[in-house]
Amino acid sequence: MRKIWVVSGLGIGLCLSFLGLLVVGTYTAAANLAGGGGSAGGLAKGAVPAAYQGLVQKWGNLCPALSPALLAAQLYQESGWNPEARSHAAAQGIAQFIPGTWATHGIDGDRDGDRDVWDPKDAIPSAASYDCELARYVKNVPGDRTANMLASYNAGAYRVIKAGGVPQIRETQNYVKIITTLSKSFEAPVSRVPASRQAAGAIYYAQKKLGTPYLWGGTGTAGQGGRFDCSGLTQAAYKSVGIELPRVANDQYNAGSHPRRNELLPGDLVFFSDDLSDSRAIRHVGLYVGGGYMINAPYTGSVIRFDKIDTPDYFGATRVTEDGAKALPSADSA
């Protein structure tokens, strides 16, 4: 039985070349597991919305225990960059201060004469200032100073001092891991990002969907005829190898570190946007297979197919990790 591999109009020779590319890409993904570790520099391009990037860059360097990427991870975890966010616990604004904490620790970050929890120009500096205040409280506690600062944010400085480090509280230990892991998705790597161990399996899943008609909102359920939209396909591909990605493309962007264009490996997620300065504006995602091509669920009326990634709206890429995906805020916590 013949399978439709690519959009109508491509010749058999080109189809076979794509198949070869896919096979090579899949094995390349599997073979790249020995890649070296990466270290991080400044903020990744577009990871922080342009409206807040300057604030995060400036205030994220307020003390040695903090960094712009770590501050960005906290803000994203707390509010998803929403300056009007409210929680059931009465937390307010982009940094999700509760009124009592704001009254004590809120600062006039933009020096306009008021302290407004709803104004990111006050709330972001206040979050950094509060972090650094906690870091000073626990500066003599053994262990990693950043981990102790984050543990203090979650459990209180007294518990960290009493425990001599991150206390044996599951919620606190999870918080420290989540924020430090999530911070990697806001860092600009300065060396090679480690290869994904699940990339080959994700490609294998996606290749079996080539030729399937696109469905807006599709997640591949039987009721949808096994059809997908772009983020539904990438979500299902990684779910097949045990990684639970969020439903929408702009949240999937934060599931790992961001390799540069010339460092892409098969299995990376590639993203597209009309605003290249803001990851929250991402509107499309595909699964990279090598050679400048991705497996793509493009739009209504098309089928899942190979497409080039080098277009003017190319935003960047993410190398998905299991820990990175687990660190992302869930729908329940938003």
Layout of secondary structure:
Blueprint: H1 12-31, E1 40-43, H2 50-59, H3 68-79, H4 99-105, H5 120-137, H6 145-155, H7 157-163, H8 170-183, E2 187-189, H9 199-207, H10 230-239, H11 249-252, E3 256-257, E4 269-273, E5 282-290, E6 293-296, E7 305-308, E8 314-320, H12 322-327
Antiparallel strand pairs: 1-2, 3-8, 4-5, 4-8, 5-6, 6-7
Describe the structure.
With 334 residues, the protein is an alpha+beta fold. It has twelve helices and eight strands. A six-stranded antiparallel β-sheet has the order 3-8-4-5-6-7. Strands 1-2 form a two-stranded antiparallel ribbon. A hairpin with an 8-residue loop joins β6 and β7 (305-308). α6 (145-155) crosses α7. The protein is elongated, with a radius of gyration of 22 Å.
Features:
single chain; 334 residues; alpha+beta; 6-stranded antiparallel beta sheet; two-stranded antiparallel sheet; 12 helices; 8 strands; 11% strand
Please state the overall shape, judged from the principal axes of the Cα atoms. elongated
Helix content: 25-40%
Q: List the secondary-structure elements in sequence, H or E.
A: HEHHHHHHHEHHHEEEEEEH
Radius of gyration equals 22 Å
Mean pLDDT, as a whole number? 88
- Give me the secondary-structure category: alpha+beta
Largest beta-sheet characterization:
6 strands, antiparallel
The multimeric state of the shown protein is: single chain
Number of helices: 12
Number of strands: 8
Short description:
The protein is α+β, with helices and mostly antiparallel strands.
